[in-house]
Structure formats: C-alpha cells, structure tokens
Amino acid sequence: TKSVFKFGGGTAEGDAKQKELLGGKGANLAEMAGIGLPVPPGLTIATHVCAAYYDAGGKLPDEVARDVLEALAFVEGVTGKHFGDASNPLLVSVRSGARVSMPGMMDTVLNLGLNDVTVEGLATASGNERFAWDSYRRFIQMYGDVVLGLDHYLFEDALEIAKEDKGVTQDTGLDAGDLKALVGRYKAIVEQALGWPFPQDPHEQLWGAIGAVFGSWRSDRARTYRRLNDIPESWGTAVNVQAMVFGNLGDTSATGVAFTRDPSTGEKAWYGEYLINAQGEDVVAGIRTPQYLTKAAREKAGAKAASMEEAMGQVFTELGRVFDLLEGHYRDMQDIEFTVEDGRLWMLQTRSGKRTAKAALKIAVDMVAEGLISEAEAVLRVEAAALDQLLHPTLDPKAPRDVIARGLPASPGAASGAVVFDSDTAEQKARAGEAVILVRTETSPEDIHGMHAARGILTARGGMTSHAAVVARGMGRPCVSGAGSISIDMATRAMSCGGRRIVEGERITLDGATGDVMLGEVATVEPDLSGDFGALMVWADKHRRLKVRTNAETPADCRVARQFGAEGIGLCRTEHMFFEPSRITAVRRMILAEDTAGRAAALAELLPEQRADFAEIFRVMAGLPVTIRLLDPPLHEFLPHDDAGFAEVAAATGLAESLVRRRIGELHEFNPMLGHRGCRLGITYPEIYAMQARAIFEAAVLVAQETGEAVVPEVMVPLVATPRELEITKAVIDAEAATVFAETGTTLEYLVGTMIELPRAALRAAEIADHAQFFSFGTNDLTQTTLGISRDDAARFLGPYVEQGIYPKDPFVSIDEDGVGELVSLAAERGRGVKLGLKLGICGEHGGDPASIAFCERLELDYVSCSPYRVPIARLAAAQAAL
Ligand code: ADP
Ligand code: MG
Ligand code: MG
C-alpha cells in the first residue's frame, strides 16, 4: 500500500475526500494544491503508518523512510532548494494531522533543516541575516520543546534575558547579532540538559520530528482527548512535511488566520487576524497584538494598526479571491491559515470552520440564497441539538457577572428572579406577577407547580438526570442542579454559598448553559424564531416523514409547543393537573377515602376541573390530535410525608389526623416505580379512570360543539403488561364514551391505545394490539424496566458505565438501540402485524433526542413526542434522519 503522498507545484496525489488516509490537514492541503491554489509543496505520510511505526517498536519502516526521501526530492525539485544544502537550503515544517483536529497532539515544528552551516546559507540566499538567525532560534526552541522534550521555559527565559539586556520589549527589537548570540545560548541549554549537542544533521532532525508526531498519538494528553471525544485509537495520525514559506522576511511578509465568514454571528464578512513580519503561531500565541484583516473590522474595533486591506492591498485582494474560491469549492465556511512571503500569498491550511449555533443557522440559510447549497443540504448543516441554544433567552454576553456558585448546566436558558425556597411561595409570588427562582436542596413531584411558576430552578443536590433537571428541561425552564456549595436554612429562609448569605426575595440569575449562579439581575436577550430560523424549519418540514408532537399538559405549554410547530400532543400527563392547589384537597380526599362512595364524591368534585382542563387544551390544539394518559403515578405521591403535612391535610380535608396517618401508612410502597400505579390503579379503582374518561369526552363534545371542528381524543392507558389489563380498562373508557354521547346527543371519533413501557407489553404486542388503536412507546419507563436501572438512582454509576463503554451513551438521554430499541422494534412489528396502520409513536425523553429520532425514523414510527422546547430540534432531526 502507498504510504507517502506528494502535493504542490500544481498537482496532488490525494484529495479532500481522503481524510481517513491523509488526515484532515493533509487531505485539504492536497485538495488546495490540486485546484491550483498556491500551496508550498510537501508530502503526507498516511495515517496507517502510525500503527506500523508502533509495530516496528517506534521506528519508521524502511520502505516508508525510502518513500519519504523520494518525495522530499520532489519537493526539492519544485522549490529548487536542497535539504541540508549549505548555500540554498530547503527548510520544512513537520505537522501532525489526524482525521479530526485534535488539540493535545504534537505541536508543529517549523524551520526544520537549519544547522550551523545552513543558517549561513539561508542568510546569504535571502540576503537577510536577521531572518536566518531568527528562524534558527525558533527552530531550536520548537524542536527542543516538541521533539527533545525540554521545558520551553528554558528557552523563553533566555529570550527574555536577551531582550532585557538589549533594553527592548519586542522580539523584533533583536538584531541579527543578538539572535546569533541567542542561538549560542539555546544550543548550550540543549547540551546541558541532554548531555549531547543539538542535532546538526537535517535528516536526523527529520526522522526525529516524524517520530515525535507518531509518538504523540499515544501521549497521555492525546489519549485523554480521544476518550473524551470518542475518537478510536486505531485511527492514527498522519504526518505532513512541507516546504517552509516565510512570513518573517520583513515588512512585505506576514502570517495570518481567517474565517471566510464570522464564526460567531455567521455574517458574510471576512474575519481574521494577521501579523506583519511574523511566523506561524505568532498570531495565536499572543506574542504581539494581531492586526485586523479588513479596514471595516479595524475601524469597528477602533484599532490603529493598519489592516491587511490597507497595508497589503494587492495580496489582500488575492486572499479575498482565494476565500471565494475555497467557499465555492467546499461550499462551506472555511477556517484558513496563510502566509505572505515577500508579497506572495501561500495557503497553509483550510478546513470547515467551527461555528456557534447562531452562525451555523445564518450561514446555512445565506448559502441557500447564494445558490451555494440546496435546501436539503442546509437542513443537514445545522446540528439539531445545537438549536437548543437558540430557543431560550440567553444572557447578554456583554453584561457583567457576579458568580456566587456553580452547578451543573442542567437545562439551558437564562433566568433572573427573586429567590424562593418552597413551591407554594413560588406560586403565590408568581401569581402576583413576580419573577422567582425556586431554590431547593432537591425537587420532588410535589414541586411541579413551583417549578412551573418559577423562571428558573436551582438545586444544591442532584445530577443532570435528577428530577429537577428532567422536569426543568421538559418545561423549558433554565435549571442549575447540584450546586454543592449552596446550603439552605429553612428556619431563617436564607441560603449560604461560599461565605455569602442570600435571603428570600433577593434576586439572582441562573445561566442554564454554563451552570453559573449570579447575584443580581443579568440582562438577557430574547430568541428570534422568525427569519433564518423560520426558513430552515420550513425546509426541514418539507423533508421529514415523522410527525412531531409534544408532551404538554398546560394550555401555556401547548401554546408554546404550537408556536414551535408541534403537530399534536403525544403525551398529556393528567396527574400534573391534580397538583394544582385548588384541586389537591379533592384529590387527597379521593385517595384517603375508605370506600367507593367516598371516592366517588371526591371524584365528582374533580370532574368539572378536569373537563375544563381538557376543554382548554382541545381549544388550543384546534383539531390536532391529543393523546391523554390516564392517571399513572402511585397515589402516595399526592400525599405529604411529614407531621406538618399530615396536620395540614387533616385540616383541609376535614378528616381526623389519625386516619390520615393510617391511610398514608397503608399506601406506603417499597418500590413505588413497580408498585400500585398505571393501569393497576384503573383496575382496582375503575371509578378514577371512568371520571377521567368522562371528563375527556365531555370536553371533546363541548369544544366540538363550540368550534364546529372535529376533536379526536386519543385516550391512553399507562403501564399495561397484558392484553387483559387493556381490555378491562378499555371497557370502562368505552362505556363512559357511550354514556356521554347518549347524554349529549353527539358522537365523536376517538381512539383508545396504550403505552408500551414494560418489556412484557412489547413482547405481547400482537395480542395487546387487538385492543389498541395506537401504541405510544414510553421509553423512559421502558428503559428503566428493561435495563433494571432506576433513572433517579443512576447518577452514581452511569458516568463510569459510559466511560468504560458499558453503555455507549446515557440510555436515558439517547435510546439504548440494542436493548430497549430491539423491544420497540419488535413491538412495532408485532403490533402492525395484527393491525395494519396501528399508529405508533414515542413519548419518552428520547422523543427529543436526535439520535433516538433517527432510530424512530428507521423503524418508520408515525411520530415522536417531546417537550415543547425540543419540538424544533425534533423537526430538524426528523428531517435529517429522512434525508
Ligand atoms: P496546528 O494544527 O496547531 O494549527 P499547524 O501544522 O497548522 O499546526 O502549524 C502551526 C502554524 O505553523 C500555523 O500557523 C501554520 O500556518 C504554520 N506553518 C505550518 N507549516 C508551515 C510552512 N510550511 N510554512 C510556513 N508556516 C507554516
Ligand atoms: Mg493549523
Ligand atoms: Mg411511564
């Protein structure tokens, strides 16, 4: 197999498609050389040589070394210079280059090939003695650091001393003589540290640098980076050896970096920096303050130093031509390195530039308008998950921050408000129009109303999948969880963090994107959902097959979801409605009732409330499908757990406290997740499901009469494991429907279906489908029950599990395709096998995860359902999955 690939002089043996073989840098250098751009000639040693190097015990295989020398002769031919030549030496750079850019790999060595003899030759050939010695001292410094492993401070200290002795502050203040003396010092440093002199043989230098690149692939830094970024060890790195061009030849020379568009805003304007009389890394290393590329950018920044446009007009124009050419060729925004050697432009690197979500969106939409890419390509250009950054108000980056604590960035967005320490207070203050931040040690289902009322949620404990985090993400509320330095004192209604005390009512700001907690109010900026965002969404909708619904239970959430383009409700959790303060007492009376009559009386009180809820939702959804799940959680979730709570409930319900205590004791469960919940409630207390079904049908009839539009409720039974469970509960629902239709004289179409959230249900999907008109995969519970992992207790071990590759990703975030996914696939197949056109959807957290959405597309489900704020992400991800 071919191991060494040449490029330059108007030709190339590789191209941009060969990143696996040549690494990203090498492939793009070849591509640029191939399309006739000015690229210094060079050679790329292929990535597969990396493994061969290790197999040979840290040595370049002989035949590869031979090919390198042959390619080097080609470079000599193109440049007319010779490697190691005393009068006209060829100098090269040795550059690493993996498939993807990898900080943590070896740094580049520039000016390789210089020694005590060739430096004189370079001085004569260039007519610039200072430049020659400056290059030599840079080379010793880089080679010493990168290849010989010497501490770079040794060299930097010597350089500082030289400048001090001379009384100058800039490197450019040193003349040829000073630099020559510095080279002497550098060589002494090397010899002292190593016990042998700096290598003078250019070939020895070359093999040393190539070996160092391959060697760096297995450095600790590189290994860590690979682990964090899922890059396999087997990829290996390529090595590029390239003829040097010099930006440090004087005032007609320069080096720079540029983006063809602004990477933070996406604006179509050249964006970059350059430095006159400088080399390679100088621009990014901050040795001197870089100058702007364009006059406009310089003026905007109020900078004095001439822009490249002003200082080197002709080369700048040429650079602009190259930018346009590269964008036209790659059809994407490019991140570029260039050098100007004595008025002549050379390209040293190009790649697709990293960009913010905002820039990605703007660039994709602009490029469609410019005719560079198609609408479908634009849809594929914007990372779906990154849209999240654009959907929430964000903190004004220019505003000052007084950070008082840090936690996990659990739910994106920013919020400011007055600190409150319990959910009832949160709700009262919010109702009075005040913006509040709910601060809790941790949250529980009883906090739902407070979380909903709050602008943001802060917890002292809990991880990224804690109750607070999951619920906050679902509601689109910013959340910082697990801010460990916070401790709350409920007695004095204050919290302390890092020695500071904040009392209830004081204002704080949360940054859900970073986990910062700040004192006071930090200004925010609202997201813009029209313009580019709207355009991209229209294109996404054209290409997607999957429908996107939302998980929502309040009219407010439904409105948000519709604004984001939801095509229905996939999951309306009725229990959230029970927590409303106006109803919780009736709910508790129903639960605490000791007989059916008592329960029925309490349920009768709840009926009008539920009916009103559903009617409002049907109105907002205006004929779109609405899936309503009947009561699911164990009843004790609606009850208090402490003495104060018992007394309160007793007072509110008018029951004896002793009875309250006893009933709550009876309702206790060892493992509520697997306990008396879901359809098991509907089987044991059919009157609960009957009341809910009645509320649904009465509301549907009401709204249908009101609007004249069809309302098609989809009634969903949770936690079914066997066909008989569904058969029994469906009979209750159908009976209520019949009664309501008879009473109102109106008949409506409706569906009854079930969640598939237990492995047994997935396995017996064929028989269950006999009684179901739709399945909705409840992949949260299905993941818990298939993996035997409780989501709320997983934080302790899931991290290490993912790190050790036991699960590739957090299975609660991205569906476990091999396990849970197989059950979903099997249930879909078996269900459709008996009932053609059985409607299939997914309503777990996974419904908003792009990877899981792609999986749903492969299974040809009908829809995904996710929290309102994830609807646009799901729309885009569904389109990408279909393309
Ligand atoms: P990195 O991947 O860290 O950017 P590079 O290999 O791209 O490393 O090189 C570092 C710097 O050296 C860049 O500014 C690059 O433009 C410059 N450089 C690399 N090779 C040459 C060369 N042959 N001539 C001039 N400058 C070079
Ligand atoms: Mg680079
Ligand atoms: Mg469930």
UniProtKB/TrEMBL annotation:
<feature type="domain" description="Pyruvate phosphate dikinase AMP/ATP-binding">
    <location>
        <begin position="63"/>
        <end position="307"/>
    </location>
</feature>
<dbReference type="InterPro" id="IPR040442">
    <property type="entry name" value="Pyrv_kinase-like_dom_sf"/>
</dbReference>
<dbReference type="InterPro" id="IPR010121">
    <property type="entry name" value="Pyruvate_phosphate_dikinase"/>
</dbReference>
<dbReference type="InterPro" id="IPR036637">
    <property type="entry name" value="Phosphohistidine_dom_sf"/>
</dbReference>
<feature type="binding site">
    <location>
        <position position="757"/>
    </location>
    <ligand>
        <name>substrate</name>
    </ligand>
</feature>
<dbReference type="Pfam" id="PF01326">
    <property type="entry name" value="PPDK_N"/>
</dbReference>
<keyword id="KW-0418">Kinase</keyword>
<feature type="domain" description="Pyruvate phosphate dikinase AMP/ATP-binding">
    <location>
        <begin position="317"/>
        <end position="369"/>
    </location>
</feature>
<feature type="domain" description="PEP-utilising enzyme C-terminal">
    <location>
        <begin position="530"/>
        <end position="881"/>
    </location>
</feature>
<keyword id="KW-0067">ATP-binding</keyword>
<feature type="binding site">
    <location>
        <position position="629"/>
    </location>
    <ligand>
        <name>substrate</name>
    </ligand>
</feature>
<feature type="binding site">
    <location>
        <position position="778"/>
    </location>
    <ligand>
        <name>substrate</name>
    </ligand>
</feature>
<feature type="binding site">
    <location>
        <position position="781"/>
    </location>
    <ligand>
        <name>substrate</name>
    </ligand>
</feature>
<feature type="binding site">
    <location>
        <position position="781"/>
    </location>
    <ligand>
        <name>Mg(2+)</name>
    </ligand>
</feature>
<comment type="function">
    <text>Catalyzes the reversible phosphorylation of pyruvate and phosphate.</text>
</comment>
<feature type="domain" description="PEP-utilising enzyme mobile">
    <location>
        <begin position="434"/>
        <end position="515"/>
    </location>
</feature>
<feature type="domain" description="Pyruvate phosphate dikinase AMP/ATP-binding">
    <location>
        <begin position="20"/>
        <end position="58"/>
    </location>
</feature>
<dbReference type="InterPro" id="IPR023151">
    <property type="entry name" value="PEP_util_CS"/>
</dbReference>
<dbReference type="InterPro" id="IPR015813">
    <property type="entry name" value="Pyrv/PenolPyrv_kinase-like_dom"/>
</dbReference>
<feature type="active site" description="Tele-phosphohistidine intermediate">
    <location>
        <position position="467"/>
    </location>
</feature>
<dbReference type="GO" id="GO:0046872">
    <property type="term" value="F:metal ion binding"/>
</dbReference>
<keyword id="KW-0460">Magnesium</keyword>
<keyword id="KW-0479">Metal-binding</keyword>
<protein>
    <recommendedName>
        <fullName>Pyruvate, phosphate dikinase</fullName>
        <ecNumber>2.7.9.1</ecNumber>
    </recommendedName>
</protein>
<dbReference type="InterPro" id="IPR000121">
    <property type="entry name" value="PEP_util_C"/>
</dbReference>
<dbReference type="Pfam" id="PF00391">
    <property type="entry name" value="PEP-utilizers"/>
</dbReference>
<keyword id="KW-0670">Pyruvate</keyword>
<keyword id="KW-0808">Transferase</keyword>
<dbReference type="GO" id="GO:0005524">
    <property type="term" value="F:ATP binding"/>
</dbReference>
<feature type="binding site">
    <location>
        <position position="757"/>
    </location>
    <ligand>
        <name>Mg(2+)</name>
    </ligand>
</feature>
<comment type="similarity">
    <text>Belongs to the PEP-utilizing enzyme family.</text>
</comment>
<dbReference type="GO" id="GO:0016301">
    <property type="term" value="F:kinase activity"/>
</dbReference>
<dbReference type="GO" id="GO:0050242">
    <property type="term" value="F:pyruvate, phosphate dikinase activity"/>
</dbReference>
<dbReference type="InterPro" id="IPR018274">
    <property type="entry name" value="PEP_util_AS"/>
</dbReference>
<feature type="binding site">
    <location>
        <position position="573"/>
    </location>
    <ligand>
        <name>substrate</name>
    </ligand>
</feature>
<dbReference type="InterPro" id="IPR002192">
    <property type="entry name" value="PPDK_AMP/ATP-bd"/>
</dbReference>
<feature type="binding site">
    <location>
        <position position="779"/>
    </location>
    <ligand>
        <name>substrate</name>
    </ligand>
</feature>
<feature type="binding site">
    <location>
        <position position="780"/>
    </location>
    <ligand>
        <name>substrate</name>
    </ligand>
</feature>
<keyword id="KW-0547">Nucleotide-binding</keyword>
<feature type="active site" description="Proton donor">
    <location>
        <position position="843"/>
    </location>
</feature>
<dbReference type="Pfam" id="PF02896">
    <property type="entry name" value="PEP-utilizers_C"/>
</dbReference>
<dbReference type="InterPro" id="IPR008279">
    <property type="entry name" value="PEP-util_enz_mobile_dom"/>
</dbReference>
